[in-house]
Write a structure and sequence with these properties.
One of its GO terms (molecular function) is transmembrane transporter activity. Its main location: membrane. The chain crosses the membrane at residues 12-35, 47-66, 87-108, 128-145. With 168 residues, the protein is mostly helical. It has helices at residues 2-37, 44-64, 75-79, 82-113, 127-167. Helix 2 (44-64) packs parallel to helix 5 (127-167) and helix 4 packs antiparallel against helix 5 (127-167). It starts with a helix and ends with a helix.
C-alpha cells in the first residue's frame, strides 16, 4: 500500500505532466516544421496519440485521488437527508470500486491482446497505447477503496457517538 501511495502522490502526476508536455511539444514542432519546410515527421502522430492517451488515463487516476475530483452527477444523492446521503455516497463508492476493478482487469486483457501488434512508424507494441487503461483503473480502484474504508470508519464513529447520545 505504501508503494501505491508513493506512486500515486508523485509518479502519476509526473507521468501525466511529462506525457502532456511531450505531446504538446511534438505537435508544436511538427506544425512549425510543416509550415517552414512543407514536410512533417512521420512518427509525430503516434507520439502525440500515445501522449494523449497516457495524459488522459493517468490524469483521470490523479483526479480520482481526491473526493469530487472526477465529474459526478450527485443530484439524486443530494435529495436524500444527510444520513441517507452518506449511505448513498457509500453505495456509489462501492459500486465504483467494483466497476473500476472490472475495467482494470479488462484493460489489462485488452493491452495484452495487442502485445504482438506493432505501430506503423515507431514499431512499438500496441500495449504502449493500451496499458494506461489498466494502470489508471488500478489506481482508481485503490483510491476509491481507500475512500470506502474512510467512509466506513466515519460511519462507525458516528454510530458510536449516536449510541452514546441515546444512553444519556
Amino acid at each position: 500500500m505504501k508503494l501505491f501511495r508513493w506512486i500515486g502522490s508523485h509518479i502519476l502526476e509526473a507521468v501525466s505532466g511529462a506525457t502532456f508536455i511531450t505531446m504538446i511539444s511534438v505537435v508544436f514542432f511538427n506544425v512549425i516544421l510543416r509550415f517552414t519546410t512543407g514536410r512533417s515527421l512521420v512518427w509525430s502522430e503516434e507520439v502525440a496519440a500515445i501522449g494523449f492517451i497516457w495524459t488522459i488515463f493517468i490524469g483521470a487516476a490523479v483526479c480520482c485521488k481526491e473526493r469530487g475530483g472526477l465529474i459526478s452527477v450527485d443530484i439524486l444523492i443530494n435529495l436524500f437527508p444527510s444520513k441517507m446521503n452518506k449511505a448513498a455516497t457509500l453505495i456509489v463508492d462501492i459500486a465504483q470500486v467494483a466497476i473500476c476493478a472490472v475495467l482494470c482487469v479488462l484493460g489489462w486483457k485488452f493491452a495484452m491482446s495487442a502485445a504482438n501488434k506493432a505501430s506503423l512508424s515507431l514499431q512499438l507494441p500496441y500495449t504502449v497505447y493500451d496499458i494506461p487503461i489498466a494502470i489508471s483503473f488500478a489506481f482508481m480502484t485503490y483510491y476509491t477503496a481507500k475512500r470506502v474504508a474512510e467512509d466506513l470508519r466515519a460511519f462507525k464513529t458516528a454510530a458510536a457517538e449516536n449510541e452514546g447520545e441515546d444512553v444519556e
